[in-house]
Every structure is written in C-alpha cells, then in structure tokens.
Automatic annotation (TrEMBL), chain A:
Residues 2-178 form the FAD-binding PCMH-type domain. Keywords: FAD, Flavoprotein, Oxidoreductase. It comes from Acrocarpospora macrocephala. PROSITE patterns: FAD_PCMH. This is Carbon monoxide dehydrogenase medium subunit. GO terms for molecular function: FAD binding; oxidoreductase activity. Signal peptide: none annotated. It holds the Pfam family FAD_binding_5. The keyword Flavoprotein applies.
TrEMBL record, chain B:
Its cofactor is Mo-molybdopterin cytosine dinucleotide. The keyword Oxidoreductase applies. One of its GO terms (molecular function) is iron ion binding. This is Carbon-monoxide dehydrogenase large subunit. Keywords: Molybdenum, Oxidoreductase. It holds the Pfam family Ald_Xan_dh_C. It comes from the Bacteria. The keyword Plastid does not apply. Residues 20-129 form the Aldehyde oxidase/xanthine dehydrogenase a/b hammerhead domain.
Length: 288, 789
C-alpha cells in the first residue's frame, strides 16, 4: 500500500475562502478537486504538498451551460457531467468524443475539467480539445479575475499561468454557426493516456473553411496547437487533398518524444493520420 | 442453480463471502500491538553499497527497528536459498543487483511512519555498469553480476539440453524445407490484484512462529522457513488466508516475508508487511523472458519432421525460478507440442542480468507457455513458407487418437487425446472457411483482417514424486477426510485456492464419491496446522493431484463404510453393492432392497454397534496421492482480429476456445478459468510488457505503464469442449487452470500476423501494441524488451 507524507487539510467554503487559504498556506499548498492526478502523485511521493485545500464543495465552480453565444464550463465540472450534457454534445461533439476516451467511468465521475487543465500533463486530452476550439480560461486571484486564451494557458509540461495564489474558475467557448468538431485518439488500451490524439474544429461557409482549430496532444505540439496547418486550411475547400496536406503540415510541426507508448516516427505518423481523420469528420459535421 | 449430487454446475460456495466483501485477506489480519514494516529499495540496477546510515531513521519517534543486511548477516540470514538451488540476498550486503532490490527494512508503529522513515536512511552507492540486454550478458566484457560466487568469471547459470541432437541434425540435413525464426517471449508479471505481504507473529513464550501469508504452497513455505531460519518445523504455522489472485506470484518466498519474521523476532511484536503495487511489479517475481530461435524441418508437402530450438533464458540477478529440480528450463522441452514428428532437440542457456529474480510464474505450467508459443508460431512460419493454410497444416501433423499414450521425442508420455476432433470443432464453431472468404474480400479492399490458430498440449499435475521435486520435496499431495456422525464431511487438503474454487469443486469430488450433497462437505485448506502435507497449487496441479487425493480418500471412506454397513445389515461385505441415486449413496445387499445410506452408516460407525474384529469405528481416512504421470489437457483456439492499417490498432473481434481437460467437475468454474486465461493472453499478446532502459530502470512499474486488459479489449468468448478423460486419474480429470494462458497468446499473435500478411511480415514480438504493429508493417520491428527509442 502506498501512503503519502503528512499534510494539512482544509475545506474551502467559497472561492474567496479558497483564495484566503491559498494565501495562508503559501506556494506549497495545492488545491484538490477530483484528486485523480494529485493523490496518486502524493502516494508515490512525487508530490508532497504542505496542505491540501479541498474545493469540491464550491458549487459556483460547477456551472455548465450556455450563456448567450458562449458555452461556460466551470472548473469543477466532472468529466462525466461534460460527457452527459446534451448541449455540449450538440455544439461541440469534440468534447464528448474526447471524454469518452478519457480514463474510465470511475475516474470520469470524480475527475474535473479544471483539474485536468491545471495538471498540464503534456498528454492531456482536454488540453487538445480546448486548444482546438480556442477556449478562454478565467482565472481568479487576490486582485480579481483575468481571462487568458487557452493557447497561452500552458507554459510547459506541468506548468500553467495560474499563479500559486490563484484559481482557475471556468472555461468559456464561443458557439458559432457552421462549425463541426471531432476528436481522434489512439491508446494502447482503454483508459490509457494517448499515444497521440488530435482534436479538430472547422467552420465552413459555402464549402470554404473560414475557421480552423487543431489541438494535438502527446506529440510535443507547442500549446497543443498546430497553427501552420490551421493557417493553410483557411479559405480552402475541405476536400481530401487539402485535409491530407494540413495533416502533413501538422505532423511536421510536432516534436514527439519516444517512450513506451511508441517511437518518434510512429507518433509523428499518428499525428498526421489522426489529424486527417479528425478534420474529415469535423468537416462533415460543419456541413450538416 | 440447483446443487448437483456430484459433478455439475453449481454456484461457488466461496462466493457467498466474496460478493459480500467478507473475504479475509492477509491485509485484513490485525493483531494486538502489531507493527508495520516497509522496505527501502535500490534505485540502481547494479551498484556497490559503500555505506548505510540508519541513525536518523532510528531516531524517528515511531520507529522500533531498522534491519539491514548487516543485521541479517549476524543471524546468518542475509542470503536465503532460492527454489533453484541458488542464493538470493534478503537484504543487500555487498551490492545491489536490480532496481528495486531490498536494502533495509524499517519496523514502525504505523505504515505511514515506516514509509516516512525510509527517507531518513542514507545509503551511499557506487554505481556499476548494468547487464540489461540478455543477448549481451555473455559478452567477454560484460560486468560480472554474481561476484559473490567464488571463482565466477561470467554470467552463465546453466547450459541444458533435451532431445536427440544427432538424430535431429541428421533430419535437418536431409530436409526438403527448413524455416528459422527468432522470437522473444517478453518478461511479464502475474500482477495479482492483491500484492504479496505477510504478518509474522513470533511468540517468545511458546517459541511458535505464525506467518499469515498469501502463499500458493503453505506446506512448502513452512518447510523452507524451518530450513532457512533454523526454527523447528512443528513450531511454525503458515496460514494462507483468502488470496486475491496468485498466478504463480505467490509460490516463492520473498525477502519481505523473511524481514517480517525477523522483525517480529527482534521486536517481540507481530509485524505486518504489505507490498505496494510498484514493489510487486518491480521485485516479486516475473515470468517468461525467453529469447528463442526455432527451426522446423519439413517435407515440401507439409509433413513436419523435426524441431530444433535454442533459448537464451533471462533469469535476472538471482536464479529463483520455481520448477522441479531436474528441469532448469521447466517443462520447456515439451516444445514439440501436439505434433507427430521424428526428432527434436533444444538447448537452453540460463543467464544472470540486472533484473528482478523469479522466472516461472504467471500461469505458465513450468515454461509450457513459452514452448507452445514457440511451436505454434513456427507452424505459422512454416505455413507461410509453404503457402499452406495454417489449419490444414496443423490437421495434417497433429497426433492421431490411436497414437496415445504417446511418447514424444523429448521423453514425455502424453496420456490421452483426440486432437483432430477438437480442432475440427473449433473450426466449425468459427466458421473457418467463411472467415477465410471474408478475409480475401477484405484484402481486396485494403482492409486487414486476421485469423489465428493455436493448438496446444499442456502437461500439468506434477509429480510423480520420483521425477519431480522442489528442493527435495516430492510432488505428492495428502488429503484427509472426516465424516461426522450425521454424515457431514470435512475434507482437508494441502493445496490452496487463489480463485480456482477448491471449496466447491473438491466438495463436489467428495460428494460424487460418497453420494452426499456438496453442501454437506466443507473444505479446509491453507493452514499448515490443520491440513496434511502437500506441495501446493501451481502448474494446474490442484485437481490432477489434490483432486485425485480427494477422490482416493473418499473411496477409502467408502470402503470403510462398506464394512460398517455389512455389520449393520448382517451381510458379507463382498455381497454389498454401492449405488448412488437422487437420494444419495448407499451400500445395498445385492438382489435385495436392503441397504444403508452413507448417513446411516456414519451414525452407526460412531455408535455402540458391534463391529467385526479388525474393523475400526468412525469413517475417517487419510491418503497421499503420488500421480503416476502428468495429465495432458489440450485445446484448439481460433482468434479473429481486425487491424487498422492507418494506426496499427488491433481489435480482437472473436475468440473461439475449445478446451479438452478431461472430465469437468464444475463446468462453470472451468469456463471461468478459461475466460480469465484468455483475457490474460490478450493482455500478453497486445499490451503487457516489462521493458528496461539501458541503466536498468524498470519501465513498467505501475498499472499506468504495465497494462492489464479490460473487458473493452476482450470479445465475448466463444467456448466449446471435448472430453477425453485422463486414463490414469481417478476421475478422469486433467488440469485446466493455465490452459487458456498457454494457448491464447499464440492464437492472438498468429491472427495479427495473418492480418499483416499483405505486408510480407512473418513475425513480430509481443506485445503487439499499435506502435509495434505499425513498425512491423514498415519492416522495422520494435525490440520489445528494451526501451523504445
């Protein structure tokens, strides 16, 4: 049995209270929500925080719904809730397709959207999905709230712009007409981290691509995105040759690393293959 | 489900407690004053220990003791004998020889403090080059791992051969067709959900040591503790409680067990030690790790004549494989499989590497897993060379039923079989010809579909004792049966279930022999103070050996009952007939209606009834069963896969498994065991892997990295059966626990490689991960035992 080192435990009653506790315990305190990354790391003693601040009771972080033309996803929304939400599935099938292949139902019942993004694992599925749809992240700190585009949210592996005294509170995604999205992942076994995965978001107008978003994970894509491939797609018809070329550009822009999930050449190949598959389905949906 | 009088489907008696969460496992043992142990492990694969400073750990307010190799050396316990007549460090004294090796043992008031204190121990290491690639272990410049052996100049453990080299070479020299293929059966782990652990309680007053430990072989453990620790054997009690999966992982004695015992002796308190998951995957046993070169000689029209094999066997840092003493490569030399051929020869070289010891575990039937994989892959390699259909090629070469009992070219005597019938049934269930037609159509469209076949013959149920022993302990099993005055019975056996359902099937055996309900038979096992001696549960030997003992001891009781019944009926024992009808078993006087049921006889046996001279009262009996031969279960498996050509992902679409394990006592339990083994096979074939980087870092030390298959990767299994009874087993049963684990990996691998036929791929090593499949398609296969670069 793996056991963590000792730590203090506090339950936050509100967001201001959580901020106060973060201030009190300093940079070695950690917020805990679903705990599905942090607790295993503590049991393996890869993480030894001085204090855990439990934010699971903060209902104001669990909102999930459409406000005007924006889908708002609270940081504390569980994976299972995102997967179960009909509006999310209707506007952004990419989220449902990603959630279906994230971990397993037990983890999805507990793990949170905000926790996944803040963990900033370089293989995180939701980081790619949010990068593809160009979400905004809302961060609250002692000085008030600020909004950060998701493509500026991750600074590097396991690093984000959220400062020690701050809390990610919600993700906001604009809903636009004529959009389609899809998510493609290859994993060694159900519930595993991806060998590679790609989310695609396309908006077309009279057959022409007017907006393109590509999120790639586990393949060393900077900010989980493929801007060159996205730029290439704008103004073109979403035909097979165009999508293949975009996939080639996306694959070339990755910097995958070999590990036991696969060698570099395979991961690069997958980045291309999955980009093509995701783009094809996103294009089909954008026309529907 | 109604309860049958003997054999048949009935719910498992043990499930009543398991499904209520009322099982009792070693970690459920809590004794007054119990302390907790934790092990400090080596971060290096190979390093000299310069110094160990335990002072800070000892200063921790909740730490009661810190034990090091030096402490143990003072007790002559720093090294312990392995099951292969080698030695293994309990706690390292001179060097560490694999990552995760045991270095120090902390005993504290709770498990948190014990774990905290590990970080207070300061060990200075002098890192050495490690031997990781087994293929380089015998290079002249390879570091010597076992410099504790006096005069050792290399890393070789043994050279061993079986079969007739000269005849085999002669057949090869004349052969019309030969094929050669290198293949690796990679290192895998049994990975039971319950890890290993122990609670040791040494009573200083009585001198009695009680060890609770999830062992598959409680009696063998007791004897070994007596030999290792020098404690008198009658003062040792080993209790193996409910076990959360064994698969071979719980055969051996691990350093943690010895440390818990020493901890209890040193502190005078009970000490519990439980491995965590990473410790289990890194240190306590592994399986396989056979680098094999197979060669087949055949005629142009597909008659196999000979097989030749060379094996490099990676045994890790200590030779701790568990197998009969005579056979350092286990039963690998059964590699001629199910085929009729003229000659065979194998050479096996065992080597040390800087990896964990172990070697035979994980439902392998003493290396038959490797042997069946080799021969079944080689048949497909030959089929590809000849352009033959793999099913037809097998059908042509399988042993025929009239050849049994059959003596193989490497000396095995197969007891019974009807192989063609079994393969034909599997092909019929699969719709083999239709599948081949579908495959041809799909290939025309660029889709990849594969059909894989494996036919296996197992050899399970070791002894006989004259051929098979572990550290001198012969492989025969005792059994003891007591029938109470009211006709209820208690069977005591030496083996221990890890999920096989002994409490049910063994009760069914007794019930069948005595004509009573299985509900009226309790099975006692897992406690050396309460059960007769025997060698334990592994190598699918429980039903072949202890199950036979249960039948034989029941027959002894039945004979005693005949004598008592004769006195009751005032008849001659020879005039009595045994009969079982729906109301139970009874001895009746031939030709009359007069008779006595077993319950009536039991009461009389304990009563004031005058018994003839020489007839003891009561109905109890004991026996020891020494099997005359192994039993040879077999089966035909067919796997159908679809492979995504763009990603290399494999989907197992169908799996047809026809098993012949002789007479089935409880078909439901047999099917459950087959299901588990098939899932194991999918795991090994497609995802399970313990690779090491060049520094010897273990790359599969958690369930995030070492992947167990889930229901999502498994199809709905399609099972079939044929029944060819074992002629020498009292109830005609053969073992089945490992059949599916042995037979399924080659079926899956053959299916994937069949799918890849358009790419000209002849072989790729397990596990066939998406990356592995894609690389094979590129003609650049991955070396699966090393880090992917």
């Amino acid at each position: 049995m793996q056991v963590p080192a000792s730590f203090e435990f506090e339950r936050a009653e509100s967001v201001p209270h959580a901020l106060e506790l973060l201030e009190r315990y300093g940079p070695e305190a950690r917020l805990v929500a679903g705990g599905h990354s942090l607790i295993p790391m503590m049991k393996l003693r890869l993480a030894q925080p001085d204090a855990l601040i439990d934010i699971n009771g903060l209902a104001e972080l669990s909102q999930l719904g459409v406000e005007g033309d924006t889908l708002v996803i609270g940081a504390l929304v569980r994976h299972a809730a995102l997967l179960a939400d009909d509006a999310v599935g209707a506007y952004f099938p990419i989220f449902h397709e990603a959630e279906r292949v994230i971990a397993d139902p037990v983890v999805r019942n507990r793990g949170t959207v905000g926790g996944s993004l803040c963990q900033a694992d370089p293989s995180e599925d939701l980081s790619a999905a949010f990068a593809a749809v160009r979400a905004d992240a809302v961060i609250v700190g002692p000085g008030g709230s600020r909004t950060v585009p998701i493509r500026e949210f991750h600074v590097g592996p396991y690093e984000t712009v959220v400062e020690p005294g701050e809390i990610l509170t919600e993700l906001r995604v604009r809903i636009k007409p004529g959009a389609g999205s899809a998510y493609e992942k290859v994993e060694r076994r159900v519930g595993d981290w991806p060998v590679a995965a790609v989310g695609a978001y396309l908006r077309t107008n009279e057959g022409m691509i007017v907006e393109a978003g590509l999120g790639l994970t586990a393949v060393g894509a900077e900010h989980f995105a493929a801007p060159d491939a996205e730029a290439y797609l704008i103004g073109k018809a979403a035909g097979e040759d165009v999508l293949r070329e975009a996939a080639r550009i996306a694959a070339a822009s990755c910097a995958p690393q070999a590990d036991q999930r696969g060698p570099v050449d395979y991961k690069r190949h997958l980045a291309g293959e999955l980009t093509y598959r995701a783009l094809s389905r996103a294009a089909e949906r954008s026309r529907a | 489900m109604s309860t049958p009088m003997g054999f048949g489907r009935m719910h498992r008696k043990e499930d009543a407690r398991f499904i209520r969460g009322r099982g009792g496992y070693v970690d459920d043992v809590n004794l007054p004053g119990m302390l907790y142990g934790a092990i400090l492990r080596s971060p290096h694969a190979h390093a000299r220990i310069v110094s160990i400073d335990t002072s800070a750990a000892l200063a921790h307010p909740k730490v009661k003791a810190v034990i090091t190799g030096e402490t143990l050396a003072g007790l002559n316990l720093a090294w312990m004998p392995t099951l292969s007549a080698d030695t293994q460090a309990v706690l390292a004294t001179d060097k560490v020889r694999f990552q995760g090796q045991e270095v120090a043992f902390v005993v504290a008031e709770d498990r948190y403090s014990a774990r905290d204190a590990l970080e207070l121990i300061d060990v200075e290491y002098d890192a050495l080059d490690a031997v990781i690639d087994a293929r380089k272990s015998l290079d002249p410049d390879a570091p010597i791992i076992r410099d504790d052996h006096e005069g050792r100049a290399d890393n070789k453990i043994f050279d061993w051969e079986a079969g007739d080299k000269a005849t085999t070479d002669a057949v090869f020299a004349q052969a019309e067709v030969t094929v050669t293929q290198d293949m690796l059966y990679p290192r895998v782990h049994p990975a039971p959900l319950e890890t290993c652990g122990a609670v040791a309680d040494f009573d200083k007053v009585t001198g009695k040591l009680t060890v609770w430990c999830p062992t598959q072989a409680p009696h063998a453990h007791r004897t070994l503790y007596a030999l290792v620790a020098g404690l008198p054997e009658h003062k040792i009690r080993v209790i193996s409680p409910d076990i959360g999966g064994g698969f071979g992982n719980k055969v051996g004695i691990y350093p943690g067990y010895v440390c818990a015992i020493v901890g209890s002796i040193v502190t005078g308190k009970p000490v519990k030690w439980m491995e965590d998951r990473s410790e289990n995957l890194m240190s306590t046993s592994f399986a396989r790790d056979y680098h094999m070169r197979g060669e087949v000689a055949a005629t142009r029209d597909g008659k196999i004549q000979a097989i030749r094999v060379k094996v490099l066997a990676d045994h890790g840092a200590f030779n701790g494989t568990a197998q009969p003493t005579k056979f350092p490569a286990g039963f690998f030399h059964v590699f001629t499989g199910s085929y009729d051929l003229r000659a065979a020869h194998c050479e096996v070289t065992g080597v040390y590497t800087n990896k964990a010891p172990g070697g035979v575990a994980y439902a392998c039937s003493f290396r038959i897993t490797e042997a069946v994989y080799l021969v079944e892959r080689m048949i497909d390699v030959l089929a590809m060379e000849l352009g033959a259909d793999p099913a037809e090629l097998r059908m042509k070469n399988l042993l025929r039923s009239e050849q049994f009992p059959y003596t193989s070219p490497t000396g095995w005597e197969y007891d019974s079989g009807d192989y063609q019938k079994t393969l034909q049934l599997a092909m019929d269930m699969a719709g083999y010809d239709a599948l081949r037609r579908e495959q041809a159509e799909k290939r025309d469209r660029g889709e990849l579909m594969g059909i894989g076949i494996a036919f296996f013959t197992e050899a399970v149920g070791a002894g006989p004792r004259k051929h098979m022993d572990i550290l001198g302990l012969g492989m025969a099993d005792g059994a003891e049966l007591r029938v109470h005055p009211t006709g209820k019975a208690v069977l005591r056996v030496s083996c221990q279930s890890q999920g096989q359902g002994h409490e049910t099937t063994f009760a069914q055996i007794v019930a069948s022999e005595l004509g009573i309900s299985p509900d009226d038979v309790d099975v006692v096992h897992g406690d050396t103070d309460q059960t007769p001696f025997g060698l334990g549960t592994y190598g699918s030997r429980s039903t072949p050996v202890s199950g036979a003992a249960a039948a034989m001891v029941s027959r002894k009781v039945r004979e005693r009952a005949r004598q008592v019944a004769a006195a009751m009926l005032e008849a001659s024992p020879e005039d009595l007939e045994w009969a079982v009808n729906e109301s139970g078993g009874a001895w009746t006087v031939a030709g009359t209606g007069a008779g006595k049921t077993i319950q009536e006889i039991a009461l009389a046996a304990h009563s004031s009834l005058e018994l003839p001279e020489g007839i003891e009262g009561h109905l109890d009996a004991t026996c020891v069963y020494n099997p005359p031969n192994l039993t040879y279960p077999f089966g035909a498996y067919i796997c159908v896969v679809d492979v995504d050509p763009g990603t290399g992902q494999v989907k197992v679409r169908r799996f047809i498994a026809v098993d012949d394990c002789g007479v089935r006592i409880n078909p439901m339990i047999v099917e459950g065991q087959v299901h588990g083994g098939l899932a194991d096979g999918v795991g090994m074939a497609l995802m399970q892997l313990m690779a090491f980087d060049e520094d010897g870092n273990h790359l599969g030390a958690s369930f995030m990295d070492y992947l167990l298959p889930t229901a999502m990767e498994c199809p709905s299994w399609e099972l079939g059966e044929t029944v060819t009874p074992s002629p020498h087993h009292p109830i005609g049963a053969k073992g089945v626990g490992e059949s599916a684990t042995v037979g399924s990996p080659p079926a899956v691998v053959n299916a994937v490689l069949d799918a890849l036929r358009p790419f000209g791929v002849r072989h790729a090593d397990m596990p066939l991960t998406p990356a592995g499949v894609w690389r094979a398609m590129q003609g650049n296969p991955i070396r699966t035992d090393l880090a992917i670069s």
